[in-house]
Design goal:
mainly alpha, about 425 residues, single chain
């Protein structure tokens, strides 16, 4: 599980490092913007169902309910299809206008179609990973969360670069979408097999897994993901709107590096939800808190070490990974380190709320953080400040959101999840 997650992160960073040496800075900024927009649109294409099916499928696998999982999976695909169709219509009607008027990017306008395809495939990929997690197939969940597609994309781009040194954004998009399409097709086959085995061939409709029921449960998570995106990733949009693609490239390069701080917690979060569900069903709240605080402590130690290394050598690491010129983003990197460190040290409080059915409370925390970050950053940019001040705004907003989430996990579920010297005994 850990190896798969690390492979995915390493493949992503290797791909970005290669693209940073292939593209000029402006094109690299456009790539980061496209990646950011695809992640945002993917929220619409999956409509929050990935976290909903994680809970529903986990509960069903752990003995709750009687519904057919094949029927549930078909309903999930129906929701994604309808959401993607609505998204496609909206992009067709407004995509070019937004690209030209809001982001001042004719290049973005020319890539609307592959961007839409990328976002839909990202959404399906996230849904598949969560279903594998619900079945406790953690190796498959890790692979389908991104590492498999990232590794294959890296190999394809390397081959493309070897054949033609003048690689374009269009050709990179073609490779990304082609690889993800293959991975999605494989995921569909594997999930159908798992569901068929669990159902023992008995496929029947059930109210608990109907599309309407899943959509109702997913709606708060959908809005939470939108709010969380605003709180943590809309900084790229603001910089593109108020600055240039070059500024986006430098800022996004720094933002990508801080992901390493919480990588141990991300690996743990890929495994924890089924165990949280199991302990919740059994009513073992004390054991659950012990487990989660133990995990936060173990994951927090490498987070602190990585954060210290990045703070001591920010410019050198940026230059090593991305090449000359990117070291100018060192101050941004240092600021963003603090918010990511708070995320790592507060543990899996968000998943605790989700697995206990408190998606609405999670939405409130994301909304507060998102409004704060966006409002402050917009004010600073309109006052003439730049990317460093934007980093301060989003780091502060992220810290507020994470602390509120920690507070709600204790208030609603009776569980603390933060880092601390804590022994876990079953």
């Amino acid at each position: 599980m850990a190896a798969g997650r690390l492979l995915g992160i390493a493949s992503n960073f290797a791909l970005i490092a290669i693209l940073a040496r292939i593209f000029i800075t402006e094109d690299m900024g456009t790539y980061f913007l496209l990646f950011n927009i695809a992640a945002f649109l993917a929220i619409f294409s999956r409509f929050g169902v990935e976290q909903t099916v994680l809970k529903l499928f986990s509960d069903r696998v752990n003995g709750e309910g009687t519904g057919s999982l094949i029927y549930a999976y078909r309903q999930v695909l129906l929701i994604v299809f309808v959401a993607s169709a609505v998204l496609g219509l909206a992009i067709f009607l407004t995509g070019a206008l937004i690209a030209n008027e809001l982001f001042n990017s004719s290049r973005l306008a020319s890539l609307i179609l592959p961007l839409f395809i990328w976002s839909v495939l990202q959404g399906l990929q996230a849904v598949h990973a969560e279903i594998f997690r619900a079945f406790s197939r953690f190796a498959l969940a890790a692979a389908f969360k991104g590492p498999l597609a990232s590794f294959l994309t890296l190999l394809a781009v390397l081959l493309l670069w070897q054949r033609d040194p003048h690689v374009t954004l269009e050709s990179v998009f073609f490779v990304i979408n082609g690889v993800q399409l293959l991975v999605i097709a494989l995921g569909i086959v594997l999930i159908y097999g798992l569901c068929f085995i669990f159902d023992q061939g008995h496929i029947s409709a059930s109210h608990e897994f109907a599309a309407r029921t899943i959509s109702r449960l997913a709606a708060p998570l959908f809005f939470n993901q939108l709010a969380l995106f605003v709180a943590t990733q809309s900084d790229i949009w603001l910089l593109q709107a108020f600055s240039s693609s070059e500024s986006v490239a430098y800022y996004a390069a720094a933002a990508r590096l801080v992901i390493f701080i919480a990588v141990a917690l991300q690996i743990a979060n890929a495994v924890l939800p089924p165990f949280i569900s199991r302990l919740r069903v059994r009513g073992d709240i004390k054991v659950m808190e012990q487990m989660l605080r133990f995990v936060a402590t173990v994951a927090g130690i490498p987070a602190i070490v990585i954060a210290i290394i990045l703070m001591i050598f920010p410019a050198e690491i940026l230059r090593l990974v991305y090449g000359s010129g990117y070291d100018s983003a060192a101050p941004v990197l240092v600021v963003l380190i603090f918010s990511q460190l708070v995320v790592a040290l507060t543990g899996s409080c968000g998943y605790v709320l989700i697995m206990h059915g408190y998606a609405r409370e999670l939405f409130y925390t994301s909304l507060v953080g998102g409004i704060f970050s966006l409002s402050l950053a917009l004010f600073l940019l309109m006052a003439g400040f730049g990317q460093l001040e934007v980093a301060f705004a989003y780091a502060f907003g992220s810290i507020i959101q994470q602390l509120f989430t920690l507070f709600y996990a204790k208030k609603k579920c009776g569980i603390y999840t933060f880092f601390g010297v804590y022994k876990w005994r079953l």
